[in-house]
Structures are given as structure tokens and as C-alpha cells.
Write a structure and sequence with these properties.
globular, alpha+beta, single chain, 5 helices
Length: about 150
């Protein structure tokens, strides 16, 4: 079985897994990283959104072979010790979560958006297209705008 070495939340890991095994299964089942959630497995709901070398990806459709030599960041790696990322802080202040299932993916998508766009419009925020079954989109939008202001 092939070996794959990459970094997860700043820690180097090596896993033995088929090249085409989705990165989500490697993270959750082989490495015990539980933040990225399985929702659809077909790149639609985006509950698993994580970062690969700083870019938002959905590891349910990214083969582990694409992570070789790269940095994977999940919600667990977003905070700096006890200091939450501004998006996480804004999420709490805006009381975004209801069931919370989609929130790690929502937050990771928002962080990626704010890396590219420091003052996102409603259209920019809507374009991240992560699905929230509870329908907290208004609070998500407000949290992203609050985080953008905090980061400026």
C-alpha cells in the first residue's frame, strides 16, 4: 500500500492508504481528526471544508495522494493555542450555530474567503455555498462581516 506524508494542523503525518482514498476518510478514520464532517461525499454540502496549502477544498472528493507534501488545515488547527481565529470569535458573538454540524466547514470556507477578500459583499459570502440545514445564513453572513472588520 502506498505511503503518503503531509502535514495536518502543523504536525507531520505519514499514512498507508490507497492513492484514491478520499482525504476525508484519512483525516477522520486513520488520523482521528473529527472537525471535518461527512455530509454528502460528492462536493455539494461542503460540511467537510478544510484547507490544502491555504486553499479551501472539500476532502470528501480530494484523494489523499493530492495531499502529499502539503499542509492540511482543519477547524482543529485554526486557533492559535487558546486564541480563537477572528472568524471563530465572530461565530460565537453572532450565535451562529444551531445544530452545529456544518459549522466547521462554514468557518473554514469563511476563513478562505477572507484571505482573498478583506471586505466581502453579500454576493461574495453567498458564493461560498456551504449548506446549512438549520438555515442560519443571515447569522453566518453577519459573522463573516464582523470577522472581516475584526481582521482589518
Amino acid at each position: 500500500m502506498p505511503s503518503h506524508t503531509f502535514s495536518v494542523n502543523g504536525r507531520s503525518v505519514t499514512v498507508d492508504a490507497p492513492d484514491d482514498l478520499p482525504l476525508l476518510w484519512v483525516l477522520r478514520d486513520l488520523l482521528g481528526v473529527r472537525g471535518p464532517k461527512y455530509g454528502c461525499g460528492i462536493d455539494v454540502c461542503k460540511a467537510c471544508t478544510s484547507h490544502l496549502d491555504g486553499r479551501a477544498v472539500n476532502p470528501c472528493v480530494v484523494p489523499v495522494s493530492e495531499a502529499d507534501g502539503k499542509e492540511v488545515t482543519t477547524i482543529e488547527g485554526l486557533a492559535d493555542g487558546d486564541k480563537l481565529h477572528p472568524v471563530q470569535e465572530a461565530w460565537l458573538e453572532q450565535d451562529v450555530a444551531q445544530c452545529g454540524y456544518c459549522q466547521p466547514g462554514q468557518i473554514m470556507a469563511a476563513v478562505a474567503l477572507l484571505r482573498e477578500t478583506s471586505n466581502p459583499s453579500d454576493e461574495d459570502i453567498d458564493a461560498i455555498a456551504n449548506v446549512c440545514r438549520c438555515g442560519t445564513y443571515f447569522r453566518i453572513r453577519e459573522a463573516i462581516k464582523k470577522a472581516a472588520a475584526m481582521m482589518q
